[in-house]
Amino acid sequence: MRRAWQALFGQRARRRWLHLIVGGALFMPYWLVGTVVLGPLTDGGGPFGGSLLVQFGAYGVGLPLAALTALFPLTRPMSVAVARALCGVAPGRFAEGPARGAEAKARTAGWFVLHLGAGALVSGASLALPPFALSVAALPFSAALRESELGAFWHLDRPWLAWAGLPLGLLMLLGLAAAAAAAGALLAAAAPRLLGPSPADRLVAAERRAAELAVRNRLARELHDSVGHALSAVTLQAGAARRVVDGVLDTGAGDLGFVREALTAIEETTRRTVGELDAVLGLLRSGEDDGELAAPGLEALDALVRGAGPRVALTVRGDLAGLPEAVSREAYRIVQEGLTNAVRYARDETVTARIALSGDELEIIMENPLPATGPAPVARPDGGRGLRGVAERARLLGGAAEAGPVDGCWRLAARLPVGGAR
Cα–Cα–Cα angle for 150, 156, 162, nearest 5°? Predict the structure, then answer.
């Protein structure tokens, strides 16, 4: 009993009933146009005073007009918005945006006609039937109703027959609720098929999802390279400065100038990284998919090398000032990741970095001796993304990168075509 009551008068049933009434309200202009078309048949009764045949004739004229207007682009977004709020269907089963292609437009027109047609019938019944049903239910309690045309219609020549009006009126109201619930369930079942995504919509959604994932991947690379390098460099400089300070405190001998340089490098690295972090977080907050990161390029290479420590031998050949911005930015990140790995694994050995511009290709080679003990550094299976990010950056520019042990050294090599930036 409770389930039957919920099916007829529960929150979902009430929302679907309201959805049908909205359809009936939207159908009203089309119905009025139908009454104008059928004007010669109204006998001067006006749009609301014609015969029942004329009323349903106007209904039949209005439905094709509704199908034609459903071809406009805004019809599907409007229908989806109303159905998502009131129809009781999971939001993910609806398509987004205007209908694309003849098949999607035809399905949208079918939905629009079904919604407005069923809504007009249910709305008309919701307006006309309750007063009549209540009047029939009140026959046993009102002598005036029994003596009226309504009583004559029911042939109430015997008083006890009036009591049949009470259950009959209630059954009319229950029948209206059942019809509205059935029509609402019909629309809910048809909504995913008629308003669901077409193959073209799925393709657009897949492309949008791929673009969003590409942006997230790019931001993840930027955060990894920037913050990861800064933490490694700061850790190295702070550890070296601490050892010098410990020597001064223990023996009174030590190079306090080196401590000053290390603290300066830490300050520069953290300030630069905070700026880069603000740029990435700004894009995340704004939700922009095509925003440009304010990432540094090779013009900031000297500051990067200073922050990595004193044992970095940098050699540059060629004029790097004329490089495209994208190439300069990605090359900077590749060098940064190479230095991050070097300061993590090279310990006190010298890191060699060579950057050469030859023709239309930029070559980056970084080498550092492998540790005497322990395994060679590899991409960590528990989440290390540095070397993978280097390869992705090179591929995006149409180049290539590789890393691995060569002749007792860890070697990172990348080749970037200068004209390959996209």
Answer: 85
| DSSP SS3 for 422 | coil
Classify burial at 223, counting beta carbons within 10 Å of its beta carbon; exposed 0-12, middle 13-18, buried 19 or more: middle
Q: φ and ψ at 415, to 5 degrees?
A: -125, 125
Which two tokens mark 19? 């959805």
Q: What is the pLDDT of residues 183-193, one digit of tens each?
A: 999 999 999 99
The H or E element that residue 412 is part of is strand 409-417
Q: Phi first, then psi: give them for residue 87, nearest 5 degrees.
A: -90, -15
Which tens digit of pLDDT belongs to each residue from 358-390? Answer: 888 899 998 888 766 554 444 444 334 677 878
d(CA 15, CA 88): 8
Question: Distance between CA atoms of 150 and 40, rounded to whole angstroms?
Answer: 31
Of residues 329, 334, 315, the one with CA closest to residue 402? 334
Q: What is the pLDDT of residues 42-70, one digit of tens each?
A: 655 555 555 777 788 889 999 999 999 99
Domain boundaries, the chain: 2-197, 205-420
The helix, strand and coil proportions of the chain, stated in percent and rounded to the nearest 5, come to 70, 10, 20
C-alpha 50/C-alpha 3 separation (Å) is 41
Residues 39-77 as b or e (16 or more Cβ within 10 Å = b): eeebeeeebeebeeebbebbbebbbebbbeebeeeebbb
pLDDT, one tens digit per residue, over 244-267 is 777 767 676 667 777 777 777 777
Domain covering 205-420 in this structure, CATH number: 3.30.565.10
Higher pLDDT: 23 or 343? It is 23
Cα angle 64-105-82, degrees, rounded to a multiple of 5? 85
Given this model, what pLDDT does residue 411 score? 87
